[in-house]
C-alpha cells in the first residue's frame, strides 16, 4: 500500500466507520430481529428471543391494518409526490423569471417552511384547519360554504394532511430546481425563440431536458420521503379518523413502541427498506433510459 493509499484510507475511515455504525449495523440488526419473536417484557427469561423465521412476515400478510397502512401510504405518495414536485418546479420557474425582483428574499421566504420545526408548524396548521375556529373554515364561511371537518373526516383527512406536507417540503426541491435552471444554456432558449417556439414548447424541449438530473433527484427523494411519512399524521391526526391516515411508518411505530412487538416492527422496516430500494432502482433506470443521468 502506497503512502497515498494510506492517506486516502485515513481520511475516509471516519465516514466508513460512521456508515457502518449508523446504517449497516442497524439494518442487519433489524433484519435479524425481524426473524425473531422478541419480547422486551421477558428480558429476564431465556425465551425472550425466540427464532420464528418468516412468521412475522406471514403475520403481517394476515393483518388488515397493515394493508390499510400500505394503501394509505401509497395514496400519500401518489398524490403528494406529483403535488410536491409540481409546486417546487412552478415556484422555481417563477423565482427564476427575469421579471421577478428581490429573488433572494423570495427564495428565503419559500424555503423557510422546510427548515422550521415540524411539530410547531403542524400545530399551527391544526389551528388553521380547525372546524370551528380555523382560518380556512372562516374564509369559506365568508363565501357561503359550510365549515368542513378537515382532520376529522376520513374523506378529507389525507388531502388536508397533504396540504401541510407539500407546503412543508416543497422548498428544498425548489432550490434544487433553481440551481438547475441557472445552468440551462441561454443560447438554446434564444434559438428556440428564433424558431418561433412558444413558452410551452421551450419548457418541454429546452427546460425539461436541462433540469432532467435535478428532476430525477427530486423524484427519488420525494418518493422515499412520502413512503416514510410519519410525523405529520402523528401530530395532526394521530392516525385517525377511522385509521384513515395510518401509514406504514406509523404502523411500525405503534407495533414497536406501543405494543412492543419489535419483531413485527422490524419486519415492517425491512419491507419498507426493500420497497424504497426497488422503487429507487426503477426510477434511476427510467432516468438513464431518457438520458437524464
Please render the helix and strand layout as text.
Elements lengths: L2 H31 L21 H7 L2 H32 L7 H13 L2 H11 L6 H8 L14 H26 L3 H9 L4 H12 L1 H16 L3 H6 L11 H10 L4 H28 L4
Q: What can you see in these coordinates?
A:
With about 290 residues, this protein is mainly α. The protein contains 13 helices and no strands. Helix 4 (about 105-115) packs across helix 7 (about 155-180) and helix 10 (about 210-225) runs antiparallel to helix 13. The longest helix is centred in the N-terminal third of the chain and has 32 residues, at about 65-95. The two termini are about 35 Å apart. The model has no long low-confidence stretch (mean pLDDT about 85).
Q: Which structural class do you get from the secondary structure elements?
A: mainly alpha
Q: C-alpha Rg, in Å?
A: 24 Å
Series of H and E elements: HHHHHHHHHHHHH
Report helical residue fraction.
Answer: over 70%
What about the largest sheet? none
Tally the helices: 13
Please state the overall shape, judged from the principal axes of the Cα atoms: globular
Mean pLDDT: 87
End-to-end Cα distance, whole Å, is 34 Å
Strand tally is 0
Pick out the low-confidence regions: none
Strand content: under 5%
Amino acid at each position: 500500500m502506497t503512502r497515498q493509499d494510506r492517506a486516502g484510507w485515513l481520511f475516509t475511515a471516519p465516514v466508513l466507520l460512521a456508515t457502518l455504525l449508523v446504517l449497516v449495523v442497524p439494518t442487519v440488526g433489524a433484519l435479524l430481529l425481524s426473524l425473531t419473536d422478541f419480547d422486551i417484557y421477558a428480558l429476564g427469561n431465556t425465551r425472550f428471543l425466540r427464532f420464528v423465521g418468516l412468521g412475522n412476515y406471514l403475520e403481517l400478510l394476515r393483518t388488515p391494518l397493515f394493508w390499510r397502512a400500505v394503501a394509505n401510504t401509497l395514496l400519500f405518495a401518489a398524490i403528494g409526490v406529483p403535488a410536491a414536485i409540481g409546486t417546487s418546479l412552478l415556484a422555481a420557474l417563477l423565482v427564476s423569471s427575469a421579471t421577478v425582483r428581490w429573488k433572494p428574499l423570495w427564495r428565503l421566504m419559500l424555503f423557510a417552511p422546510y427548515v422550521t420545526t415540524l411539530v410547531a408548524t403542524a400545530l399551527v396548521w391544526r389551528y388553521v384547519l380547525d372546524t370551528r375556529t380555523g382560518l380556512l373554515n372562516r374564509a369559506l364561511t365568508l363565501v357561503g360554504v359550510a365549515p368542513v371537518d378537515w382532520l376529522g373526516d376520513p374523506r378529507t383527512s389525507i388531502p388536508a394532511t397533504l396540504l401541510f406536507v407539500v407546503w412543508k417540503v416543497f422548498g428544498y426541491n425548489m432550490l434544487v430546481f433553481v440551481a438547475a435552471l441557472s445552468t440551462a444554456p441561454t443560447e438554446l432558449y434564444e434559438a428556440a425563440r428564433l424558431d418561433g417556439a412558444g413558452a410551452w414548447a421551450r419548457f418541454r424541449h429546452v427546460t425539461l431536458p436541462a433540469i432532467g438530473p435535478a428532476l430525477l433527484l427530486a423524484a427519488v427523494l420525494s418518493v422515499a420521503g412520502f413512503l416514510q411519512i410519519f410525523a405529520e399524521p402523528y401530530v395532526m391526526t394521530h392516525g385517525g379518523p377511522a385509521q384513515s391516515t395510518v401509514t406504514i411508518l406509523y404502523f411500525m411505530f405503534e407495533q414497536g413502541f406501543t405494543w412492543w412487538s419489535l419483531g413485527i416492527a422490524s419486519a415492517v422496516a425491512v419491507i419498507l427498506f426493500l420497497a424504497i430500494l426497488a422503487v429507487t432502482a426503477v426510477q434511476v433506470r427510467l432516468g438513464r433510459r431518457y438520458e437524464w443521468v
